[in-house]
Amino acid sequence: FQVKSENRKTIWNTEEVPEGSEFDDTWDPREQPEYQILFKQCVGTEDVFFGMSRKDPSTACCEDVVIKIKLPETKYSDITLDIQDKVLDLRTPKKKLLLHLPYPVDSKNGKARFLSEEETLEVTLRVSRMFDFINF
């Protein structure tokens, strides 16, 4: 048995710590908001009527993931949002959401919009899979 560690005093390897665990503070008293995860797919007539592409209705063929988060009594300026490749971290004065995403995403090119009349934050993130060039 051989330990692969640069420093023998370390008790864990950095690869063993899951991404996003630095945000996970269980002692935070803020409640988790209601949220919904939806998958979005660009489909044209060649997909629907002719079946010319390999797309199917499964999440494996979806290009985007949309997260809708209900934030009642919240102003847009009170929202702090941090997106990592596999983690969404949202904080407001009353709510906190740490969400491990179902697929890795392109964290640099997402879109977020706050629908004030619905009191909902809608975050759209592009899914980044290794072999998307095969599917699309």
In words, what does this structure look like?
- This protein is mainly β.
- It has a domain at 36-126: Immunoglobulin-like (Sandwich), CATH 2.60.40.790.
- A hairpin with a 4-residue loop joins strand 4 and strand 5 (96-100).
- It has helices spanning 45-48, 132-135, and strands at residues 35-40, 64-70, 80-83, 87-91, 96-100, 111-115, 120-126.
CATH architecture call of the domain at 36-126 = Sandwich
Distance between the termini: 45 Å
Q: Specify the biggest β-sheet.
A: 4 strands, antiparallel
Q: What's the total helix number?
A: 2
The whole-number mean of residue pLDDT values reads 79
What's the count of strands? 7
Rg, Å, rounded: 19 Å
CATH class of the domain at 36-126: Mainly Beta
GO molecular function: dynein intermediate chain binding; protein-folding chaperone binding
Protein name: PIHD3 protein
Family: Belongs to the PIH1 family.
InterPro entries: DNAAF6, PIH1D1/2/3_CS-like
